[in-house]
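pasting for the record
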Amino acid sequence: MKKVSIMNAFGVIPTGGNPAGVVYNQRDLSKDEKQFIAKEVNVSETVFINKINDIEFEVEFYTPNKEVDLCGHGTIAAFQYLINKNIISAGTHYQITKAGKLEIHIDNNKIYMEQRKPEFYNVIEDRDLIAKSLNITENDLIDYLPIQIVSTGLKDILIGVKNNEILNNMKPDFSLIYKISKENEVVGYHVYSLEKNGNETANCRNFAPYYEINEESATGTSSGALASFLFKYNILKKDEYKNISFLQGEVMNKLSKINVELSVKNDIIDKVYVGGNATFDKEIDVIIN
């Protein structure tokens, strides 16, 4: 029997945030056992974290059906768990992941995780097909920005729509999104609207049926990718680089806020940090046969 702590990352209301399972210091688990636990827990990601030394931790991320290289909300959940258990305190730490060795900075009760430098892949030219997969029209898409695959650790297709009404009312065709995601070798879609209700940079929804996650309420890696994309296409002003925020999960009644900071040198992104907190929800037991 293995104990799994469920932590809600990035929540801004009592029902908000994105749950992740956290399993600590269980080096005896095989990959098959980790995948079994993730499927049993059945949240978007379950994190397996092992202590290497006082500042370095080995971290692995599993969705219910696949291992992934990196997960933003899972990272926040895992390091909040370590803080809650008094295993770490404020300062700089590192997670060793399949996306590389990445910095974790904890200050003022907020956790910031470094992501990989952004990589920009192909632009999706068939905008009508993308619109069809979201059950909207091509005219509903932002026309001055491309639909593009971007990664700061995981590949997503970034898709802009013209306003929040379109964003919140779309009814995705998950079977078609699955097919498009598989063909393009991406985790899924990150759909955004630049219409503001407050101080947020954008409002977002994330769909990843290829990984058995139809929709999730807070996606850290996609937020890093989106911030980098908005920088590349000159949507962000210089005074906004360290004060980027995305709202997500509204239609799921799990409103979440993901903060992003970009470190820019000579007009090039040097580092990407995604920040937030997590709260403990519950502990569950998983019996491994």
